[in-house]
Amino acid sequence: MQIAFFSSHSYDIESMERIAKEQGVTPAHELKFFTPRLDATSAKLAEGCEGVCIFVNDVADEAALRVLAAGGTKAMFLRCAGFDMIDLKVA
Fold first, then answer.
1. How high is the mean pLDDT in each 10-residue block of the chain (91 residues)?
2. pTM (two decimals)
3. H/E run at residue 54
């Protein structure tokens, strides 16, 4: 599974890559890191990724979710406690 991380900072990349290595994540699970926040425009970056991981200021509104779905995304993971940025009816 390819997982796209939005709103990625150097500390996100370092910690996620370290955890993946420690957990023995196989090459079949590719992590892709993107600096932009998720929105309807940046969602195209995740094309081909089955999962996306978003942060608190990302926007998973209807437009972004439709772009993600069209690109093959089937799962969304959050690096935050809240989920108010997700259009749950569309998701």
1. 96 92 82 97 98 97 98 97 95 92
2. 0.91
3. strand 51-54
